[in-house]
């Protein structure tokens, strides 16, 4: 498997694992050097230096004890004597304590035999000196000052000088050992420092080289991906992405290649769809504008229709009222016609009675005329007889003449009455005929008025029903007008939305036009090995 086919995880693990090993090695060496330094420092501090400090404390305690012993011999008062005695015993205790501690310390591992011999010499001399010092203290306490001074000069001073020399010899030996140890520690430090520098330089060099290689292996494909993303950001979707590894960056470039192809396909489809949407939304907007105009016209027409229906409703209501009044008038006319028919019937009956009375009068007039004719004949006969009577009959002749004149006038009057009666009978008969005809006509009028009344009632009922229907139609038209107004508002809003959608479609078309997709059949390719992207020349 090629190195570039390894995953970034594997590369990073390998690089950081190697770096961790180097760090562990450096850390191990550092710990080793630090441990050696710590051990040397511990040996110096807790060994030589600590023993040198204890030896110095022994020397100091020896000096303090010698001074206290000298003072004990020199003081005269009991209080000073007791004080110096306590000081002698305290200093002697310090000498014994520090010397015992020093003897324990030289038993530790790593202490040289020379140091042990020097400490043993100090202990031997201290044993002798301690006995002599104790004797001197006893003599001083017994007030034998001269014996104490003599013993001090004869025995104590040589032992004290030997003890001081032994402590100084040990101190000098310790200083030499300290110098040697410091020099050795410095040499070890220089060696460890040099080794750490070499290892650190090697680790840094390895880290730099490995980091450069790993960075190049990671950043180069990522830079390719960045170049692809920038190419897509410029709207150029014709890039041919070259994938030459199987690691994460290779999969990233493969995903970018698939994304670029899918985006190219999507932009192509969106471009076509946005063009169709722009055209369709334009048509919809125009249609909505036309529909809005027609809806407004329809709303205006409905308003006019509603106004006309209100007028028609008022007219029908008025007609209904007129029909109701006509029905009342027809009902009254029917009643009047019925009354007129009864009156005509009574007139016909009266005319018949008048005709019968006229006939009776005509008969009476004929009788009167016959009587007048007979009276005239009698008067004529009386005149003839008076003429025959001569003078005696003159008076009777005058009477007969008057009677005759009366008879003639009666006859004339009877003739006139007869003529009048005949004329009256004729007129009465004509009137009776007319009255009969009028009665029949009035019956027909009554029937006609009844039928008219029924028709008018039906018209009134129909008008009332028509009025209710027209009111319902009027309400429906008002509702339709409201709905039409709402529809007009909705159509206006739809027209506005269509305009906005058309504008959005145009903006979408302009936005999609930013991308440059390869034209069908164009395969001209120039490879850019620097970024791993081959760019098609031709764009749609």
From TrEMBL:
GO cellular component: plasma membrane
Transmembrane segments: 194-214
Entry-linked SUPFAM superfamilies: Methyl-accepting chemotaxis protein (MCP) signaling domain
Subcellular location: Membrane
Main localization, broad class: membrane
PANTHER family in UniProt: METHYL-ACCEPTING CHEMOTAXIS PROTEIN I-RELATED (PTHR43531:SF14), PROTEIN ICFG (PTHR43531)
Domain HAMP: 216-268
Methyl-accepting transducer domain segment(s): 273-502
GO molecular function list: transmembrane signaling receptor activity
GO BP field: chemotaxis; signal transduction
UniProt similarity note: Belongs to the methyl-accepting chemotaxis (MCP) protein family.
Name the record gives this protein: Methyl-accepting chemotaxis protein-1 (Serine sensor receptor)
Swiss-Prot/TrEMBL keywords: Membrane, Methylation, Receptor, Transducer, Transmembrane, Transmembrane helix
């Amino acid at each position: 498997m090629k190195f570039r086919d390894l995953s970034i995880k594997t590369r990073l693990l390998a690089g950081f694992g190697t770096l961790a090993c180097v760090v562990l090695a450096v850390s191990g060496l550092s710990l080793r050097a630090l441990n050696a330094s710590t051990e040397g420092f511990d040996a110096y501090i807790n060994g030589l230096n600590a023993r040198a400090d204890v030896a110095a404390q022994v020397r100091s305690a020896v000096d303090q004890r010698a001074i206290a012993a000298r003072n004990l011999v020199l003081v005269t008062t009991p209080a000073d004597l007791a004080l110096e005695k306590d000081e002698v015993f305290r200093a002697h205790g310090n000498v014994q304590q520090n010397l015992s501690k020093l003897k324990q310390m030289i038993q530790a591992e790593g202490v040289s035999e020379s140091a042990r011999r020097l400490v043993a010499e100090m202990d031997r001399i201290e044993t002798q000196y301690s006995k002599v010092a104790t004797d001197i203290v006893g003599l001083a306490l017994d007030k034998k000052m001269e014996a104490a001074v003599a013993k001090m000069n004869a025995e104590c001073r040589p032992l004290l000088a030997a003890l001081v020399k032994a402590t100084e010899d040990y101190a000098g030996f310790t200083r030499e050992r300290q110098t040697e140890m410091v020099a050795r520690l410095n040499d070890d430090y220089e060696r460890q420092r040099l080794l750490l520098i070499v290892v650190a330089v090697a680790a840094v060099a390895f880290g730099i080289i490995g980091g450069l290689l790993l960075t190049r292996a990671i950043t180069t494909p990522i830079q390719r991906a960045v170049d692809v993303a920038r190419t897509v950001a410029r709207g150029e979707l014709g890039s041919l992405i070259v994938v030459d590894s199987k690691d994460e960056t290779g999969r990233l470039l493969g995903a970018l290649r698939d994304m670029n192809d899918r985006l190219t396909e999507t932009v192509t489809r969106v471009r076509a769809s946005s063009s169709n949407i722009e055209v369709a939304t334009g048509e919809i907007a125009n249609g909505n504008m036309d529909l809005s105009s027609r809806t407004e016209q329809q709303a205006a027409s409905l308003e006019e229709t509603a106004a006309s229906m209100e007028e028609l409703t008022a007219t029908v209501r008025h007609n209904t009222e007129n029909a109701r009044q006509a029905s009342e008038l027809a009902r009254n006319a029917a009643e009047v016609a019925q009354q007129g028919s009864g009156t005509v019937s009574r007139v016909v009956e009266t005319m018949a009675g008048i005709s019968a009375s006229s006939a009776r009068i005509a008969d009476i007039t004929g009788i009167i005329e016959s009587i007048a004719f007979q009276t005239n004949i009698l008067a004529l006969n009386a005149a003839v007889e008076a003429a025959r009577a001569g003078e005696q009959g003159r008076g009777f002749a005058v009477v007969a003449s008057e009677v005759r004149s009366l008879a003639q006038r009666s006859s004339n009057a009877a003739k006139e009455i007869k003529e009048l009666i005949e004329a009256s009978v004729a007129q009465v008969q004509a009137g009776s005929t007319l009255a009969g005809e009028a009665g029949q006509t009035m019956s027909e009028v009554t029937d006609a008025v009844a039928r008219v009344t029924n028709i008018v009632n039906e018209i009134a009922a129909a008008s009332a029903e028509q009025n209710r229907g027209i009111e319902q139609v009027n309400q429906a038209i008002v509702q339709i007008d409201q709905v039409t107004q709402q529809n007009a508002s909705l159509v206006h809003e739809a027209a506005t939305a269509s305009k906005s959608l058309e504008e959005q479609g145009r903006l979408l078309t302009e936005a999609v036009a930013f991308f440059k997709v390869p034209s069908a059949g164009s395969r001209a390719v120039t490879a850019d090995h620097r970024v791993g992207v081959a760019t098609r020349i031709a764009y749609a």
